[in-house]
Amino acid sequence: MLRLALIGNPNSGKTTLFNLLTGSRARVGNFPGVTVERTSRALKERADVELTDLPGIYSLSPYSAEELVTRDFLTDERPDAVINIIDCTAAERGLYLTLQLLSLGLPTVVAFNMADELRAGGGRIDTAAFSAALDVPCIAVSALRKSGIRALTDAAVRAAQEKSVSSVFPYTGVCAAAVRALRGAVAPAAEAVGAAPLFAARKLLEGDAPLEKRLRLPPSVRALLERQRAAVERETGFDCESAMIDNAYRFITALCGKALHRAATPAARVSLRADRLLTGRWTGLPIFAAVMAAVFYLTFGPLGSGLSELAGQGVESLAQLLEELLCGWNVNAVLRALLTDGLVRGVGSVVSFLPTIAVLFTLLSILEDSGYLARAAFITDRALGRLGLSGSSFAPLLLGFGCTVPAVMAARTVPDARSRRLTVLLLPFVSCSAKLPVLTLFAAAFFRRPALALFLLYAASIAVGLLAAQVLKKTLFRTADSPFLMELPPYRLPTLRTMMQYIRRRIGDFIRKAFSVILLASLAVWFLQSFDFRLRLAVSPADSMLADIGSALSVLFAPLGWRDWRLTAALLTGLTAKEAVLSTLAVLTGAEGGTAVAALFASPQAAAAFCVFVLLYPPCVAAMAAVRRETSRRFASALFVFQTAVAYFCALAVYRVGNWLA
Fold this sequence. Notes:
It is built from 31 helices and eight strands. The chain is mainly alpha-helical. The protein folds into three domains: 2-162, Rossmann fold, CATH 3.40.50; 173-261, Helix Hairpins; 290-478 and 496-661, no CATH class. A hairpin with a 6-residue loop joins strand 2 (39-42) and strand 3. Helix 5 packs antiparallel against helix 11. 47% of the residues are buried.
C-alpha cells in the first residue's frame, strides 16, 4: 500500500481536502489548529493508497507538540510521498514550509488551494513557473469547490511510484556556502538516523538542538558547524537562524513576484476596516463581550429553553404512552418501571435538552466559520497573558464549552509545556455542554430569570478559574511567558454544509453518550434504587442499596446544606457523565420537572451550593482519561483532588454566605 502524507499551514484547507479525498468527516473550521493529531484513511478512489492528515504547522522546527508529531512522522516513518497544501492567498508563508519539506528528500506534490478565491479577486497563479522553480509538480485546486482534485491525486500517486525528489537549492551567498560545507560533513551521521543530509545541514545551522543531540556529531563536525555559524553571522549581521530564514524568504519573494499575482479587492479593504473595529484596542473586548452575551441569551433564553421545553413535553408524553401500553399488556410492574422510569424518563431527561445544545453549537459554528473566533483569540491574548497563558489557549478553552475531551486534546496546540498544563488545569472551570441540562433545570426551578442565572453561573465558574490561574501562575507554574503567534483567517460566509457537519458531529456525540453511558447509568441507578443488598425488591427507594451508599456519603456534604442521599447518588453517577446527574434525579424522584428537584433541598441556599458544586467538581471519566493520556497519571490525580477541593470549598462559601445574608 502506498502511503501519502498531507501537510500544510494551519487553516489552509488541509482537513477539507482530506475529507474530500477519503470520504471522512474529520472536523473542519475557519480557525487555526483544528487538527491536533494525525489521522489516516484510504483514498476513496484508490483503496490501495493511504492518506495521513498531519497537524497544521508553519515549519519543521520542534517548537510545539504538533510540529514534533509531523516531523517525527516524516523523518521516522518516511511516507512514499507528501502532498503539501498551500493557501494561495498566503503563499509566501506556505512556501517556507515547502522548502523545508523539499530538503527532506521525499517525493512531493504542491497543491495551491483556494485558487478559486484568488481568481475571483482578480489574481492569477502560474503553476508551471512554480513547478519549474521548485522541481516538483504544482497543481491549483479548490478543496471547497472540488476542482483539480483528480489531477492532484494522480500526481501524488505518480510521484510516490516514481520516487522523484526535488533538487531545488534555494540558498545564496554565505548561507549557501555554509549549507554545502555542512551537507557532506553531516551526511554519515544524518543517514545513520534516516535524515536527509540537506535537511540536517539546514536545521543544524538554525540551531535545532534535538536534531543535533540525535545526530551525535563527532568533535570535528561540531567545530565545522560552529565555524560556519560564525561565518554566516559575521557576513550577514544576524544570528544564524534569522539569516537562514531571511535567505529562504528572499527566494520565496522573488518566486512569488514572477508566478503569483494578487489584486487588491474591495473585500480585502472591507476586511481591514472590520478588523480595525473588531480587534481594536478599545472596541475589541466590548464587542466580544456583546457577542458572547448574545450567544448565551439565544441559547438559554426564549429560543433554546422554549425548544427544550417542547422536547421535554414530548418525552413525558412518550413515557405516559408507553406506561399505558405496558399496563394494557399486563406487563410485570418491575419491568414496567424499568422501561418507563429507568429508560425513557432517565435518558429522556437529558435528551430533552438537545435543542438547547443544538442552538449553542449552531451559533459557535457561525462564529468559527466566519473567522471571528480567531479574532477573539487575538483579542483575549493580553488578558490570558496575565494568567500565564496566551491567545493559543483560547481555542482549547472555547472547545471546553462543548466537551472537555477534545478541549484537552486541542491543548496540544499550546506551544510550551507550562502553558499547556496550565490550560488543561483550567479546562474543568469551563462548563461543558454536559452540565447545561443540570444547570438549566436548577436555574428554572430556583430563579425567576433563568437565562440571567445561567449566565452568572457560567461567569462565576470562569471567575473561579481565573483566580485559580493567578494563584497557580505565582506558585506552581512560575516561568517566563511565551510569545503568541497566530494567523488571522479571512472573513468568510459560513457554508451550510460545514455548519451541518459541525452540528451533526456534536449532536451525534451527545446522542451516543445519551444512549450508552447515560443509558447504562440510568439503568444502574434504577437497579440500585429498586433492590436492597440482599437483591430483594425494595419497598421504597429509601430501603435500597443506593440509599445506603448515598446515606453513608451524605455526611460529607452536610456542611454544604444537603443531606438527601439522592443528591449524593446523583453526584456519584455524574462522574461517569455530567448529564447522568439529571437522569439519576429523574429516576429517583420519578419526575423530570424542577418542582420535584426543589423538594430535595431544605433551602434555596443549599440548592445554590449544589449548583456550584456541580459546576466546579471534576469532569467525567472520559475527560480525566484524556488528561491522563495527554499529561501523566500523577497530574490527572492532582487535578481530580484540586478540582474536588475547589468545588467543595466554593459550595461551602456559597451556602454559608447565603445563610448569613438570609
